[in-house]
């Protein structure tokens, strides 16, 4: 979290975090990170790093980031993820974080996951959120407040490779995710040596993370489906309102909307 390459990443994207409300350190938080993008760079710069302003903006808050369990099945990649301070997004791990003796823990997860990543494209904001309610259940059972977070510029960091038949390619990637828990991203970025067809470096765009206001959640060890659905609807509305309130500041046209 204190590695110098985190600062390099922030400088490369002219990155900054925008705070819209306080996160009192006497509460725990489940933070939804949107959109996933192809490489999830916004959450890496915010919750997986101490060097880009998060501790100063939210004093007393201890940040955690989690991702798919499948990311930890492969040697070297597993160690790299753990060195960067990232853990598995299992229910067991989330409960471990939120049940520490002290308060002020904020755990961020990219709700849309890899299914959202393969839908990522510049200028489009398709979120895999309609049927993602596990994080809502955890917030209810553990009494953790919900916080929406949106990364403006995330979907512009890479251009996806769609091929001749984008739908067929997406279906193939979905099947790979189902069986192996991970799929290598297929994208075009910036070339380190100036090759005209691009490379693996992300495109140099302005990346901004806007952290929304917390949604108060009272602990409910046995929430009903109706209670989960109600809180999910409140969260979705809060995320959309956050996007609408800030999109004009980052060059997003008025007619562009979040599609859930």
Automatic annotation (TrEMBL):
One BP term from GO: glycerol metabolic process
Entry EC number(s): 2.3.1.20
Broad class of the protein's primary localization: endoplasmic reticulum
Compartment annotation: Endoplasmic reticulum membrane
Keyword set, alphabetical order: Acyltransferase, Endoplasmic reticulum, Glycerol metabolism, Lipid biosynthesis, Lipid metabolism, Membrane, Transferase, Transmembrane, Transmembrane helix
EC primary class: transferase
Molecular function (Gene Ontology), one example: diacylglycerol O-acyltransferase activity
GO cellular component, one term: endoplasmic reticulum membrane
Keyword Lipid biosynthesis: yes
Assigned protein family: Belongs to the diacylglycerol acyltransferase family.
PANTHER family: ACYLTRANSFERASE, DIACYLGLYCEROL O-ACYLTRANSFERASE
Protein name (record): diacylglycerol O-acyltransferase
